[in-house]
Design brief:
Elements lengths: L1 H12 L13 H22 L1 H4 L3 E7 L1 E4 L7 E2 L4 E10 L4 E4 L4 E6 L6 E2 L4 E5 L2 H45 L10 H47 L2 E3 L4 E6 L6 E2 L10 E6 L4 E8 H4 L7 E5 L7 E14 L4 E8 L11 E7 L4 E2 L13 E6 L3 E5 L2 E8 L4 E12 L3 E6 L6 E4 L11 E5 L5
Parallel strand pairs: 1-25
Antiparallel strand pairs: 1-24, 2-19, 3-18, 4-13, 4-17, 5-12, 6-8, 6-11, 7-10, 8-9, 10-12, 13-16, 14-15, 14-17, 15-16, 19-23, 20-21, 21-22, 22-23
Length: 447
């Protein structure tokens, strides 16, 4: 019954004259919303590429450099500053390498890391079988050469006797020349015999000289063999503590001029002479100088500090780390301090002197200084000025205030505001504004 009623309803709904309504188009979700999404994406893309789409202003730039300071003659002193930088402890002035002076195989290592070594102490031994045989062979060759001298000397004695005999025979007949007692042939024969014996004697003397030279050569070869045998024992050239052991028994060592550590057995350092190699940021490099006092601390000894003096400045900056390395000698190193320990250096810089000579706005003396081209400075007022710097990440111009030191016709010392490596804009255009996109061309003029 129910089935029949459903069939009736189906036929009625699809019969003639019945209109089925179409679904709505939903313009908001199908057209408007996608259009809004596309427009928003285009707007974001245009905003992200705005720096590229905007025209770039052509400018000429020059690097800010680190140079040695100027002349003296001061009337005003700048106060000292505190420069903090990380560092690593190392041997002062360097660790001592103990090399094997002879190629060979390590037979024995007599010291280990951390042990105290005295000057001349044996730290390793090489297999010496061949060296022992070489010395014995040299001793035998020396003995043979000495026997050769004795034999040659005996020949000389025999030849000298023959010469004396020939001279006596000739002396008997020489006065009879011209007479009939002795023939001329006999006299000539005895004279030739004397000359022959004298030549033989000269040859015997030459043999003695040769044998003596062979003895000298044999002695030198024996000394070389003894030297080679002695070098199978590797000795420390200085006293110290073993920093690192580089070989083990059974390993072959072979000194190589192209590899300074190829034949090194151990390395030594003196715990009483330590220093810290400190990486000073280039922004602070102009402030530090040799003689500055330094306070050193380590995590190994928390709460304890050590006195130091800045002893050397390495004259080559590290472009990757943007630092300059200095050496700080530790005045009172503790036994707990070891090479390659991390340390912190607190450098108290000395107050630099300023002078006001004609044509300058403060002249500094001594130490490295930061210099910038004078044509990059604008709004100069005494020791204050401004400079435009190119931001390399965005290729845009940024304005900075700088503090000046000594100035010359072409350059100016910058005490604050710029750091080595910055690119400053020379003769900046009047329409330059912060954030302006620029196209920089490096100047080729020597600063």
């Amino acid at each position: 019954m129910a089935h029949a009623q459903l069939s009736t309803l189906t036929r009625a709904s699809t019969g003639p004259g019945v209109t089925i309504p179409m679904p709505s188009r939903r313009l908001l979700t199908r057209l408007v919303l996608p259009a809004v999404v596309v427009l928003a994406a285009l707007a974001l893309l245009a905003y992200a590429a705005r720096e590229t789409l905007l025209p770039a202003l052509a400018v000429t730039t020059a690097p800010v450099v680190l140079k040695v300071g100027g002349d003296s003659g001061t009337t005003e002193a700048l106060p000292g500053e505190i420069v903090q930088a990380p560092g690593w402890i190392e041997a002062d002035p360097y660790a001592v390498s103990v090399p094997a002076l002879l190629a060979g195989v390590i037979k024995e290592i007599t010291v280990l890391e951390g042990e105290r070594v005295e000057m001349g102490q044996v730290v390793a031994r090489l297999v010496d079988d061949e060296a022992v045989l070489a010395r014995r062979r040299s001793e035998a060759e020396l003995a043979q050469a000495q026997v050769a001298i004795q034999e040659a000397s005996a020949v000389v004695a025999v030849e000298e006797a023959k010469v004396e005999e020939a001279r006596a025979l000739y002396a008997r007949v020489a006065p009879l020349a011209g007479g009939n007692a002795v023939s001329q042939e006999e006299i000539s024969s005895r004279r030739l015999r004397l000359a022959s014996q004298q030549a033989s004697l000269a040859t015997a003397h030459a043999l003695v000289s040769r044998a003596e030279a062979q003895v000298v050569t044999a002695r030198i070869m024996l000394e070389e063999a003894e030297l080679a045998l002695s070098r199978t024992q590797v000795r420390a050239p200085a006293a110290g503590v073993v920093l690192v052991r580089l070989v083990e028994p059974g390993q072959r060592v072979m000194p190589d001029a192209n590899n300074p550590f190829s034949g090194v057995v151990v390395r030594l350092y003196d715990p009483a002479h330590l220093q810290v190699r400190v990486d000073v940021p280039l922004a602070d490099a102009a402030k530090v100088a040799v003689g500055d006092t330094v306070e050193i601390s380590t995590e190994t000894l928390p709460g304890r500090t050590f006195r130091g003096v800045l002893s050397r400045v390495v004259h080559e900056a590290n472009i990757q780390k943007n630092t300059m390395q200095v050496k700080v000698a530790i005045a009172d190193p503790a036994a707990e301090l070891k090479p390659e320990m991390l340390a912190k250096a607190r450098i108290t810089t000395k107050g630099r002197a300023l002078s006001s000579t004609p044509g300058s706005q403060g002249q500094t003396s001594g130490g490295p200084v930061v210099q910038a081209p004078k044509s990059a400075l604008i709004e100069v007022a005494g020791s204050e000025a401004s400079a435009w710097v190119v931001d390399l990440a965005t290729s845009s111009a940024q304005k900075r205030r700088v503090k000046l030191g000594r100035t010359t016709a072409d350059s100016a010392e910058v005490l604050d505001g710029l750091r080595p490596g910055d690119r400053v804009i020379l003769e900046p255009p009047a329409n330059l504004a912060p954030g302006t996109r620029v196209r920089a061309t490096e100047t080729t003029k020597e600063q």
